[in-house]
Protein 1
Amino acid sequence: MSGPLRAAWHIQRPLYRELAYETIYGVPLGNLLPNVPPEELGRRGVRRVAQSKLLVAGLIAFLSAGTALLLTPTVRRLLVPSLPAPLFETTVVGALLALELTLIWWTALQLVPTFLTSPIFPNLELLPIPEKVRTRAALLLFLRLFDVQVLAALLFTPLCVGAALASPLAGLALLPGLVAVAILAMALSLATGRFFVRHVRGSPGGGRRTLVRWTYLLLWAIPAFALYGFISFGPRLVFALSVLVGHGPSVGIDALFAVFPLPLSAAPALAANGGSLDLGPGPLPFLFVGLGALAYGLLTVAAASWLWSGPRALATAQSGGAPAETPAAIPFVRRSPARSVLTKDLRVASRIPGYAFLILLPLLDAVALGLFTVVSAPGPAATYRIALAAVATSGLVATFFGPAFFATELVGYAYTRVLPLTDRSLVLGKLYLVVGLYLTAGATVLAITLVRLFEPLPFAAFVLSELPAVAAAALLELGVLTWVARRRGLPIANLYSGSFTVVAVALPGLFASGAPLLYFLVAGGSDPLLAAGRMALLALAELGAAATFCYLAARPGSR
Amino acid sequence: MGGAPSAPFPLEVQGLTVHYGGRIGVERLSFRVAPGEIYGLLGSNGAGKSTTMKSIVGLLSPDAGTVRVFGLDPRVDGVEAKRRTGYVPETPLLFDALTPWEFLEFVSGVREIEPEAAARRVERYTEALQLTAELHQPIAVLSAGAKQKLLLVAALLHRPPLLVLDEPFHSLDPRSVRIGRELLRQHATEGRGAVLLSTHTMEVAERLCDRVAILDRGRLVGEGTVAALREANSGSLEQAFLRLTREEEGVRAAVRSLGSE
């Protein structure tokens, strides 16, 4: 290790601990620190970051193993017997590389904003440390955000691919592609993290800016959708390819090899199949693979060169947000405390991806369901089946995300605690959000499927029948949280950190939102309309019980 | 100073004891603040000023003693007590993800203030404190002074009969300190609001406070009007402070050691 690199390594070690601490505890957001010795806080921060990285690394290993299973000749012959093996292998490994890129990029994006806005680097600039050492220290610190995930990808993926294709050379041939993917993912994290800090978290108010924020957040949520997309779209993609190949050789298929990341994933297939892509005699496929590999190679070199000094340059710039527009005299809007909580949550979510994700995921899911329905073109008889799928998805919103909206209270929590906000107003504010999301998701599916679906009224009626159950699930979960908080003598905003609480509140919510759907599944075969009516009655009864429980749990005068 | 005998005091603290992190934060502290009175808490770092204020607004639970805000126990009638209180915390921990305008709209909604009145007050206070240009910037990018001004505006927004201000001027420029003092003075004299403020700055205490309490290591060591404290300790308020906190000799020794190198 050279002198500057050794010095940088020593410097980054305590800085990493500080960064982990800042990321985990979010003190500037108003979170309260647990009552443990200061040195334990640092250790705990490092441990939590390591856990999060290990989780992603585990997921990468799992996906690699899954891909290996897909790559076996038996599975290929079972799935798409007509697709040539090299094309199938290139596509499957390519999908894995794309997934790994999004996973590494997306999970690091949780840490990069803290990296870019931490006072660590501006303070480091004030110390008498050579510029070269500071640049290296920033680079090393930045690389440490990715270490476990990237190592997992570099280790497990070639191993699994090599084993599945029965060719160690195939595994080794994947390494350059994996390195490129890792570098590109890091560069994407830094670039999008920078954009996030400037134009999302640092975005001034105003309509146009709000649109930019939500657009970014929508794009941000899509990689998180990657696994879901991989499972949903992956088989369709392979089948589509199979159909295309069935039509005979074409430039279109050959050109596919230039699409990212196929030039990077073609190497194992070439290594395992004696240098053949099995797509006819012409050189075009190789030309596209070669040109693509060259282009992505150059892009990777550019990204690596930018990463060499980029982390320090961006972390010391600390420019905060984009300049504000001329302040407009916007009138205050009259809102109840509960609606004020709802508006505040939406505004907070529009600048914090983690919360925006909770809101966008069900809507993206609704769009996906709508599009699938349009593509598969079911007849009018499928109305209830589609509606059932739509409300089941939205039911999950209530079950899993309702209490998670409490977590937004952690933002600015130190201040909210001194406001006269009652438990009931808080619970009602979160309920509005859950119900609003459910209805928006239902309306989205309905709007998209109107093209193919000829019975919008039964569909809407079905969605509305489940609405009381969704509200009941949310009330039940929020009520349980309030009740537990009171028993423990905690402010309710401080509760959601416990994983036990998450599970404990999710189960009754799952039951409440699922019971009417289950009833419909069992009894809806002969007369769906009657079953939907009974389902609505059951949902209403649940709402009555949950509202009573929540009313008692969230008393008006206390918080 | 005294309020009407039958009406509860805006703030009454009796025998307040708070242990924090195994240390004494405040011990057997008692004082009260009358309507229209500006009461200052003076003390060195760690004297217990912020602990006292946090207990008053319900952020900390006392180990012993009582706090009453207009006769209400903040632990029992928290929401009602909070309705009557405006608070500026020592550290500007806010919603970094909101703009000041969005934050103030949220505060006015939760406090159920008429939108027109809230907007009028925001305009008045932000213009006076020169905060208008930052109203639509995210709080995350504001300077410490701008955040401090924002907290002051948020605390004043509902014209609370009790203001609890923890070092409200510590990041402000001299102009804003002057305006801030005037706002508090008006709040106390015209609105008959009670103000409890903590400060390190003797000048602020001398110019603004009707009475001050001096805290030392969590205990009350002196209380009275500024004039009375000066007179009793034959000197300036700073001298009175150093004498009552037994820091006089320590300061002299530190000054001597600084000159000896």
Note: The radius of gyration of chain A is 26 Å.
Protein 2
Amino acid sequence: MRAVPVPGEGVGSLIAVAWRTRRAAWVRRLRGNAGALIGLGLLLLLAAVAAFGPRLAPADPYRIQVVDKFLPPTLAHPFGTDELGRDLLSRTVVGARISVRVAVTVLAIAGSTGVVLGTISGYKGGVVDEVVMRAADVFFAFPSFLLAMAIVAALGPGITNAILAIGIAWWPRYARLMRGQILSLRETLYVESARALGAGDARVMFRHILPNCLAALFVQATMDAGLAILTTASLSFVGLGATPPMAEWGSMVAQGRTFILTAWWVPIFPGTAIALTVAAFTYLGDGLRDLLDPQLRSRGGV
Amino acid sequence: MWAYLARRAAGLVAVLFGMSLVTFAISHVIPADPAAAAAGLNAGQEQIEQIRREMGLDRPLVEQYLRYVTGILLRGDFGQSIMNQRPVLQDILTFLPASVELALVSLILCVPLGILLGTFTAVRAGRASDALTRLLAILGISMPVFLVALLLQLFLYKYLRWFPPGGRIAFAVGPPESITGLYLVDSALTGNWAAFWSALHHLGLPAITLAIANLAVITRMTRSAVLEILAQDYVRTARAKGLREPVVLVRHALKNALVPVVTVLGLQLASLIAYVFLVEVIFSWPGIGSYAVRAILGLDFQAIMGITLLFSTIYVVVNFLVDLTYLWLDPRISY
């Protein structure tokens, strides 16, 4: 569907055509990437479940009915019931929204802090750069799970603090990414010409440099969204994140793990939900990177 | 080279100093009442006051920090565990060998296999088996380690009965005489083969779980490193010289691919530590992870901070050593 520009239509339509061909090439490449498609499909499903969760859930996820405890998966309870007789399908469905919220909040905290600090650091250079980057080195030096664990322990257990802690532990990733992007973009011709035309710092930064960093940022965020869910679930698993009865997937696995030998469905279904979600983000992130990184592309789509 | 080493060592010290500032902030500044946090939930007012005096929390922050750091450096003072009133360091040293043994056995399982799989998929890049391995590798990365652990417990213990469900050694056998604290080594040294087999048997599930968790990352990394090197001119030269493919692969490609692979192994230690925490809980493995989770559940703040600081230090030092192995792995790097 490559359109040929008609002479005399002006620059605007040329750009439109260029954009359309570019988009078509994107779609083609995306189509050739099975992993990215699987990821995208799973994420659309997740988004739908998160959006309509409470309405989709066949039963009240928090309703305790002890007589129905440990029912294996049947038509009435497709995922079975847990030790308190709660419907596991409903709990897993409701958990999707919690997980999406976790991913978004962690990325918002780590991303905004990292982007702001990394931008300043890369653009200003000098002492500011030195201070920010050495601080990033220090945070990077910690195994991030341990750092998050210690921060939650200091703040007090709970899902909000767990999210906050992961955000704090992860900001250097974004700071480094942004700084690297800015350092390389700062020297490009179009930035130079914008400056020559009299654009100020802020204008160069926000109109010319930032938009060109978005692709790399987006790939990193996609990959990290899954990891954020996984890390929060792990913190919940050791008792630092969500607390019962919240239908958070990690906490559901933690509560259910003691029943693995007698009622396997209690921990396995929420655990599988975590695995699929994380895999979806990783597949998509992996595919997006191949798509957006021209270097990888020329190598024949590694 | 010595100038390089000195510069790196200085960087290491700077990072460790920064880390001590962060852990100090977490333990002394973030909590609303650090003394209450350190004393634990069930502490009475008297205990809290005592800890406030011990930690010098009424003193200026700079003085508190100096006291904190000198305590760690000079006396190995990571505070006292609330659970059992023992110094945290002593607790850590008690539980460490079990975790080290578990981590080492899992690495022996997954490192050679991961490098083999990675090389294999790189050679077959673009074919169906490669695509499949890549899809599986991402799935492996995405599986929460606790889910892997539970699935193995279900299949390898409940249905197949290949391994015991948890614990470190059969109760009837009892632990071997302690020399290194590693049961396999101790029992082999003392010729206690009953203990050796029991320990090995108990290592099965947790070690396989950890190995699976790391296998995917090692495979992916090796694949991309080998792939990159196979595209180099010197590989084409080697082939043009008429060297056989296995020789090209092992002597030329794999050896050079090891630099990024070793780097990733060093960084992977961070996940390994996190995985050990989760896996030990599920398999009732009496190591540092189980200890840490008990500390968390008991809100034993001092123990948590001690573990964080100690393991973060180990992580940094290991990665420093990994950097140094480049000098040996890649003679071109001379600095």
Note: The mean pLDDT of chain B is 86.
